[in-house]
## 1
Amino acid sequence: MENRFNRLTSKEWLPFQKSWFKVDTDEKFYKENIRFFVKGENEQSTIFYYGKQIDLVKRICNDENIKIHTEDGKNATHYEFVLIDLLDEINYEIRQSDYEKIKKDIIQLIQKLYPKIENRRFVAVLIKNIHTDNGYFPYAWELSKHLSTMLSLKDEKIGCKESTFNNNVSTKFYSTSKDFFYCLYFRKDENSDGIHNEIKACYFINNKQYTIKDKEFKKTPSWFVLKPQPRTKNEILHPAKYPEELVEIFLKEFTNENDNIIDPMSGTGSTQLASLKNNRNAYGTELSEFFTNIAINRCKEYLSPAQKSFWQDEKKQTFLILNKDARQITRDDFPEINYLITSPPYWDMLNMKGAENQAKRIEKGLQTNYSSKNDDLGNIDDYNEFLNELVGIYMNVVAIMEPGSFLTIIVKNIKKKGINYPFAWDLSEKLQEHLILLPENFWCQDDISIAPYGYGNTWVSNTFHQYCLNFQVPMKK
């Protein structure tokens, strides 16, 4: 297949499609982006760069025989690629008022450049979310929401740096190692017009944690690679199981022994089994009777195995999983809950029969969605309705949670029929109306084959990172 998008071979193209990457050197990072998003077929290839790494980017462009502009672009006729680099400008000393000024400047800059950006070419924005003692500020998400009114949001990558933090230091607030950044990719195309529409975003409310008496945290890695154990024959029946190893990471951060843990969408019982193994009590609901029974049997087998060891200690933890719609949870169902961890349906993506993973499950005769019930969230067609229903479920569970307790929700952003739905960001914004947003973590997957989506025509990533969104229940609900 002819590559009409850039000069890369298929061997060079594929690694860039991975949605997260380890940062080796600044030069390699900038060079890979410029080479991927610039055709470079002749001396007319020109990019625009905004940022503090001007000398480095100019040197790379010179080596690649690419013209570069760093002013307002008045003398340019066209741009194949625009790179907005805010990594040094939006830092941990910045105030929110400073960010608002930068945002205004970037919006005005893109409006000026828009007529000269080639059709179906990309604008990349490099930016961090910032958390300090004064709160958590998801600037990347907020800026993306504004720029999405001007350009088509197409994708994202997560730049992961090697951690150098000291995790032996305890603090009163949940914090992460701050060693990642966002690469946000927008495109000028038939769905964009370069005009900024004023919008209201709620990312900067409810962003300051409460301290909890006698509760301390050790700083956790912002990103981690997890290689879970292979799924058993019963576990593989579920189309979207998440691993117990993932649950254990957050149990150790947010809970103590004998705490009550809940998952309102229990599936095959990953949350409950991990909780029991870590001496926590396990609770949950599951809409499917089939998966409810699998989850219950897994927990029973752990607490009272068919083949008991002579030296096995008696397990004192309890569990209860109800075959029930999470919307109907009441205080009569469970004791007060100390922590919620769950992974919801990623909208109706499991009903996309053409998806590669779905095709493989069909071939093996495995179930491809959670259920065919109308009240199953995974069967809702409308994105906003799905979001609102999901928020309603979480807030229903929050009603039986301890004030000041925590939630972790495992999600990822969604690409469907050529449109990018920032599910993680949208869910966070809606929940922030009720809960306190904490720094996110990323579960990075490194054991999945890369598919050549869009090769030779445009860029579409393989989504190999999952958001671990963290929230705190207010002290007064």
## 2
Amino acid sequence: MTKQNVVMSEMGIAVAAAVPASSPLLTYPPPRSCSAVAAGAGGAGGGAGGGVAMRKKYQAPLEFGPAKMNPWVESMRASSPTHAKAAAALAEAAAAAEAAPGAAKDEYAAWMVRHPSALAKFDHIVKASMGKQIVMFLDYDGTLSPIVDDPDSAFMSDQMRAAVSDVAKCFPTAIVSGRCTDKVISFVRLAELYYAGSHGMDITGPVKVSKCTKAQANEVLYQPASEFLPMIDEVYEALLEKTKSTPGAKVENNKFCVSVHFRCVDEKRWSALAEQVKSVLKEYPKLRISHGRKVIEVRPTIKWDKGKALEFLLNTLGYADCSDVFPVYIGDDRTDEDAFKVLRDRGQGLGILVSSHPKETNASYSLQEPAEASICVMDFLLRLVEWKCLVQGLAKRRYIGVPPQM
């Protein structure tokens, strides 16, 4: 018997059940106008509790069986290059660039043409953003912090925190992560940001309101999978028990999803770990998996991802269907591709992939994977802040009638 009894009806789910009564609930999909926020915050929904009844479209449940397992394990490998492999790939590409022309050199050069360095093309990026409102979206692990063996030790540096803080003073800024929102907030410790945890299924506004934010302090904006919380907790406990026999496996409860980390698991045991996860999930057809870097993500089968979270946050800020917005999304993981694709489909802003080796992506630009100080990402953020200050300084000079100094 499958355990579907803990899931509410697929039709007419009241999303507001998990939201405090004092918090306005914004509708999604958004009204297609720049004034959507005013309409959404003004009591949209009309229900007794201010909730919005939504019709959820579930994705097809995950199919299991012998034929499905090998592709699953292969996906684990494909989405989880080790630092050693990534470094080797980068070294090989660099060596090829110095050596005689060859397939490796041509492939790397072609990839860099399609996804040039965001630092090298910084002037092109800011030129494209002129006259538009930049909105920043940042992944956490592997983007603001280095990838580490222990996910509880993925701390960002003080320098990176200062850079993100400076960015938030210039542009509306959101952290979009697979981690639970509370965990990301505890890592970042910046009150003026929007946070979209659990792959965008738990979106909160800033604690400290600034000129770049429009949400009330501590406001819960959106939780599209709140009815799955009992199931997620149940699966977390089951996976914790099932995987304890696999050395190095770590199960993390990210509130609206469960992460099974296998960074410290011997690759020879990946297939066994996949079988363990499979044996638990076959009882939960309302859950699906996705693959990240050395992690298996278990989440609800609703059509919601980081791309949907990006669109929701743009709507929250009043840019649902505006031509004068320039979203910039920086991320390193396969789950960030949903956001990259949204930007590409919208024809607005750009995605920046953080990676040390060529791989298929919907991002327009690239940055090298962060080392200890996350140098490339931090450099890009600081250059963006410097450019904004320069533009504001020139505008102020023109306003008071002082000619700019060249």
## 3
Amino acid sequence: MKIIQVTDLHLVAPGERLHGLDPLGRLDAALADIAAHHGDAALVVFSGDLADAGAPAAYEALRDRLARFPVPVRLMLGNHDDRAAFRAVFPEVPVEHGFVQTVVDTGEGRLILLDTLDQGAVPGRLCDDRLAWLDARLAEAAGRPVYIFLHHPPFRLHMPVLDAVRLLDDQAFLAACRRHGDVRHVFAGHVHRPVTGSWQGLTFSALRGTNHQSSFDFTTGQGATIEEPPAYAVILIDAAGVVVHFHDFPVRLDATAVARDPLPA
């Protein structure tokens, strides 16, 4: 099974720019590259921060583009999103307990797409309702492989500015994963960095966004936006395991376009 992960679009209204870049133009480039090379994908998961400030015009621009996109998609939310504005534009997207989260059952196992948005805050949270929902969905999948997608990583990257805004309920998330199910991999967004590893026995990956990226800073805690090639992930899952390829899709890079702005909230 092939899944494409796209994350951190940070869309703005058509004609606007963000950090000197064109988020909609870069999304168009990503979608064109995926359609050209991965039309056989089972699914494209957009793992949050669809809009930069939750503007309805940004969600409407996304909807217009996805209407012409040939691969099935699932949309998730991140800390830059607005749940109400998103749901007004995408009323058909599955919602559980008021949160934009769902499961996708496949021949290779269960995908759980988890809503970690804590409206108005940068770090992610899992309230009691979301933890109970996760617990139930994992219990249902007993005996089957499970793959979890969420915007905020529960794991530390040893990069202070990013670790401060991870999923704060990391231990509750871990406990749920350990109680139930065979969780094979955790896929995250949010950090705008390509990274893989293992955390408490769970393998994970995260990747660059489609617009700006986070500076590669392990020491200062003063992160900044930078321009590095935007990317999407090609995820290949079978009975033998999980392989994640990070692919830098073609765009024109302009190192002078992006000021080293502090990482936005």
